[in-house]
C-alpha cells in the first residue's frame, strides 16, 4: 500500500498570535495584486505590492529581533513558508542599515519640503548642516563616552592635533 501524502503543515507554537496580522496583510496583498493599474507605469503598479511585502517582513523581524515575542522555531517557519523575505531581513540585521534608510527618506522628504514651501536651497542647506551636526553630536554621545573634538583641538586645516 502506498503512503498517503498530506499537505498539512504543522504550525509551531505561537502561530495563533501572529496569524491574524499575517492574514490581514495577505488580504491586502491580494487586493493590491488585483487592483487595476490603468494609467500607471509598470513600476508604479508594483509599489503597493513591494510595500506590503516589506511590511510583512518587517513585522516578523520586529517580533523576533526587537520585541523577542516569537520563538526561533516560529521565526524560521515564517521564513521557510514565505511569510517574510530572508534577504531583506538579513539587510536589516546589518549594522547601520537603519540610519541609511532614515537618511535616504529624510533627504527625499526634505527635497519635497523645499519644492512645496519655496525656500532657497542655500537656507535649506544651512539648516541641514546644523541639524546633521547636532545629530552627529547626539550619536557620538550615545555610542562613546569620549566628547567630540572642540574648536580648540582642531587645527586650521581641520585636522585633530
From TrEMBL:
Pfam families: BUD31
Domain of life: Eukaryota
Compartment list: Nucleus
Coiled-coil intervals: none
Main location as per UniProt: nucleus
Keyword match Cell membrane: no
Protein family (similarity comment): Belongs to the BUD31 (G10) family.
InterPro entries given in the database record: BUD31 (IPR001748)
Name of the protein described by the UniProt record: Uncharacterized protein
Biological source species: Miscanthus lutarioriparius
Membrane-spanning parts: 95-115
GO CC terms: spliceosomal complex
Keywords, sorted A to Z: Membrane, Nucleus, Transmembrane, Transmembrane helix
GO-annotated biological processes: mRNA splicing, via spliceosome
